[in-house]
């Protein structure tokens, strides 16, 4: 028969943590950048590419496989967000960047070691502005995403030397809210990180339409053409100039600075209109 306690003090006096099932928690980070490729010919326009940061595992399980930066939560000293920031700094040498909680992944068999629940985060950065060097086992991969008519999403990740192909099925969960769940057709990255990659890109695509989140990936000064390229890469479609101007008219402010050189006509530079200023 279950013991009935008369007060919280009495309960805590007899409480034993071993009476409860134990589990581990991790924080995994999807770090996304939309930045310019290096262009050797100054007469050519630099092309914007979406990139994500992957880390190659040096230990089992999944030794030698690529995964997202991640690590275990210290239950006595950390919140999930502080864990994510620590992991990001340790594994990528990056800090003070935009970080937002994405989803919690709790499949029973997602980690072969023990029952591990992972809370994923999305982090955004303009990698061309980074002053810190990423760790040797971390690498940026450019992203090419193609969504088929049958709700299968093919994602190609390439770093110039290595190509990784992900294929994920989108499954409609709620027609009224257009919410989807994802199922990897074959797990390629370690753990369930194939799903985190697509979930993060979908989150970014949705939020770019109604928030100013995109400016976390922009330099302080930019041309409207550069900003439009970033929107188009995230949304994975071409935007008409008039429609794009309507989207960003209240988000940016014109400066007296100009972008010159690179074999092109000078262009006016803009900056983000911070609503808190």
Please give a structural write-up.
The structure is a single chain. By secondary structure, the protein is of the alpha+beta class. The chain has 2 domains: about 25-205, Nucleoside Triphosphate Pyrophosphohydrolase; about 215-270, Winged helix-like DNA-binding domain superfamily/Winged helix DNA-binding domain (Arc Repressor Mutant, subunit A). Helix content is about 20%, strand content about 35%. The protein has helices spanning about 10-15, 80-90, 195-205, 225-235, 240-250, and strands at about 25-35, 50-55, 65, 70, 100-105, 115-125, 140-145, 150-160, 165-175, 180-185, 250-260, 265-270. Strands 1, 2, 3, 4, 5, 6, 7, 8, 9 and 10 form a 10-stranded mixed beta sheet that branches. It has a two-stranded antiparallel ribbon with strand order 11-12. The longest helix has 15 residues, at about 195-205. It starts with 7 loop residues before the first helix and ends in a 5-residue tail after the last strand. Residues about 40-45 have low confidence and may be disordered.
Oligomer class: single chain
The CATH class of the largest domain is Alpha Beta
Low-confidence stretches: 39-43
| Rg over C-alpha atoms, rounded to the nearest angstrom | 22 Å
The total of helices stands at 5
The CATH architecture of the largest domain can be given as Alpha-Beta Complex
Provide the residue-averaged pLDDT: 88
Question: Can you summarize the main beta sheet?
Answer: 10 strands, mixed
The percent of residues in helical segments reads 10-25%
CATH homology group of the largest domain: Nucleoside Triphosphate Pyrophosphohydrolase
Beta-strand fraction estimate: 25-35%
- What's the SSE pattern? HEEEEHEEEEEEHHHEE
Global shape: globular
Structure classification: alpha+beta
CATH topology title of the largest domain: Nucleoside Triphosphate Pyrophosphohydrolase
Number of domains: 2
Task: State the end-to-end distance.
Answer: 62 Å
Total strands: the figure is 12
